[in-house]
Design brief:
- The structure is a single chain.
- This protein is of the alpha+beta class.
- It has two domains: 99 residues, Double Stranded RNA Binding Domain (2-Layer Sandwich), CATH 3.30.160; 71 residues, 2-Layer Sandwich (SHC Adaptor Protein).
- The chain contains four helices and twelve strands, in the order βααβββαβββββαβββ.
- The strands form four sheets. A four-stranded mixed beta sheet has the order 1-2-3-4. A four-stranded mixed beta sheet has the order 9-10-11-12. Strands 5-8 form a two-stranded antiparallel ribbon.
- A hairpin with a 2-residue loop joins strand 3 and strand 4.
- Helix 1 runs parallel beside helix 3.
Length: 185
Amino acid sequence: MELQIFSKNMELTPAIQNYVQKKIGKLDRYLPNITEAKVEISEERTKSHQHRFTAQATLNSKGVLLRGEERGENVNVAVDAVAEVLERQIERYKGKLYEKGRGVSLARQAAVPERTVASEASEDLPSVVRVKRFAVKPMSVAEAVEQMELLGHSFFLFVDTENGALSLLYRRNDGNYGLIEPELA
């Protein structure tokens, strides 16, 4: 597993790096095909001391993305919390695979780092402050639902294998799912 550790608004000491490697590295025991792990630790000046440090972790296991974000009063607490979240997600993912009696699908989403866009619009109007880019891979609607649930998002963009068109899956307020298939006018 390739582990990348980043820091924001704080110095990344060797002690912090070792602690993150120890905690996130042990997740490889639960899901041995993790190819890449990215961890970002940041410090924010907040009024609440319990939420000062944030740990975000993204695991890539042959195209399946598992992501967690937790806050804590110090770096160790935040890293421990995000490791527990990822461990629960791995257990849930493995349970779904076991129940369905099949292996991991190769047609999954791959993330690409995000970049920010400089805002030149007037201050009165809202502007685009972040652009995310990611590879969109073909998958069925059922696979898209599973991937969206694993990520914990309320929507998911994918290419439908049935018609080859870009589709948007979203969670409705009643708990069901909706699918948007755009048509060019």
